[in-house]
What we know:
The structure holds two protein chains of two kinds.
Chain A (H helix, E strand, L loop, with lengths): L35 E4 L21 E3 L10 H21 L3 E2 L19 H6 L4 E10 L2 E10 L12 E7 L4 H17 L8 E6 L19 E6 L6 E2 L7 E6 L6 E5 L7 E5 L7 E2 L8 E6 L5 E6 L6 E6 L6 E2 L7 E6 L5 E6 L6 E6 L6 E2 L8 E5 L4 E6 L6 E6 L5 E3 L7 E6 L5 E6 L6 E6 L6 E2 L6 E6 L4
Chain B lengths: L2 H6 L8 H11 L56 H6 L6 E2 L9 H16 L4 E7 L6 H21 L7 E7 L10 H7 L1 E8 L1
Parallel strand pairs in B: 2-3
Antiparallel strand pairs in B: 1-4, 2-4
Amino acid sequence: MTAPRYVTAIGILAAGGVLLAAPAVVSPLEHPGPVAPLAGPQDQQQRVWIFELTNPTRRPRIGMPDFVAPSGDAELREMATAVAEVLWADLDFEQEFYMIPREESASIPSAPTAATIPLERWSQIGADFVVLGVLERAGDAVSVRLQLVPVRAESNQGGQQFGYKYGPCRTQAPRACAHAIADHMHKELRNLDGVAQTQIAFVSDRDSERVRTRPIPNSGTAKEIYIADYDGANQRPVTANRSLTFGPAWSPDARTLAYMLWEPGLPETIVLNTLDGRPARRLLPEDGYGNQLPAWSPDGTRLAFASNRSGNTDVWVVNRDGSGLRQLTNHPASDTSPTWAPSGLQIAFVSDRSGGTQIYLVNADGTGLQKLTSDPGDHDRPTWSPLGFIAYTSGAALGHNISLYEVDTGRISVLTDGLGDNGSPSVSPNGRHIAFKTTRWGREQIGIINRRGQNLKRITTVGTNHSPSWSRQR
Amino acid sequence: MTRTQLFCRRSIRGGAAALALAFAAACGGNPPPAAPGAGADPFPGSPSGTTSTVPPPPVDPATPPPVPIEPDLITADPYVDMTVDEVNENSPLKPVFFTYDSDELDDQARQALNDNAEVLRTYANWVITIEGHCDERGTPEYNLALGDRRALAAKTYLQSLGISASRLHTVSYGKEFPFDPGHTESAWQANRRAHLVLTAK
Lengths: 474, 201
């Protein structure tokens, strides 16, 4: 077994982000600073992905014991355990590897070096690789040395071993540390853009506040924008308007959230929130028109949205600074709920111009209108995946499902299983997962499912939650 | 202003004479007779300082016929001292109901809006918001647009009756704030509405 070759040069990345006092916005995002590989294999150009040579029908089986930290350092050992647990879950999520359940390997002791790993024990439970993770303090920060150790000599097939040192991590943020490692591993080993460092924004009424913006006795429960890590951790509010907010949409650089806000006496309006404690600003001047359902262009320069400014609801496009407002669709029917193609050249939207709501396509300059769907039932909330399909809400008045429309072939498949009312899909940035709203667990909650309809996960449990939007990585 | 005075100055619709009598009585068409020994001197000119022990002659208990109050003499705004919230708690503005998936105004809808226009003409300083609401069927996104259409339909009709657009704001709440949380047709009917609220006066 060849020893891993570590480059000793270290590039320390500056910790970014500052916690700002936020009088108007509750709990702005904390940026722990980017965690990245500090050192790795020297010969990056000729790196062989170690899994290329294994059986393509069988995913590599990876075992992950607890990570290792110096025995006198209880805080670091606790962090080591947390990092390993979260990393296991992150790798398991994408299903590129078969992660051996940690209960199955719980009796196999962790080893502090590759040479001392009890490979025979791991081989008995069918592991192809074992993750060696070693945490060390470096001043205020923590580094994680991680290595994929092959269990049998032939597992590696002569390729380089995967080994990197990651940092700077912080003891207060083990999850962020694990997420960064997971994304790097997925990129290096599978050429996959992982989602471990992404977030999901959604609408929640869990604060149970009474709406202050309607002057009637029974004004209703306020709905605010919340953010969660993609795995449901760290759920925290973005707004505290005690009003109705709806339809959050992440900008492509994941630094701005657009959403609809209802203020007293005013029509629904679109605001942009830069998540840094400054108040959200209106996208358009207040002019008495209702603006709904913002959708960012893939290059982040424009937003498409629905508006009644023409006298009926049409799709409009505007630059993110509010300039360049132009009308995209022009029809007496309601055209709404736009979504951009990943190319930025087309926009899909919903229209009831032919009776029942169907999905249409138009070029970003307004030409080339086509109808995409004709199947029965009302469709809504299309969202375009970079993997070439459009997810949308489909079906009857109650009890909708998420369907997928394959753009190249026009083929439609139903993603969800008919349990409860399912809708409002939002696709992960790598296109492989869909966040959505579902009532299958009782009240409206956010769930995640992969594009094959498997691996359903529940994200929210408190209050009523809906209208998810999945960010890219910052 | 006391409650009695406020009550007296309420504008009278319909002009029922009996109602006018009742108002007149409550508003005190004549002051009640002074009780004996109450301090008023019933015999002006009697020697000062002396208190007469002769009871005053009984006053005829029948009060003179009251003067009917004519409606156009009552012009004060009974809502003038109320807050916007208080007005909305007992609002003279009527909701407008719609059939499923529709923004069309039927006869009852138009009648309700006719009445609302009358209120808005009477209180010419009122600014209202017309909220568009939907029942729970259909997606939240679709219902945002439908709510917009319902609010706009009500606004357009009020404008056609002469109410200035600057007094009529619209907002859609889609299906987010149902008036009836039930899942029956009667609950859905109650939720398919344009709801008018006072926002400034």
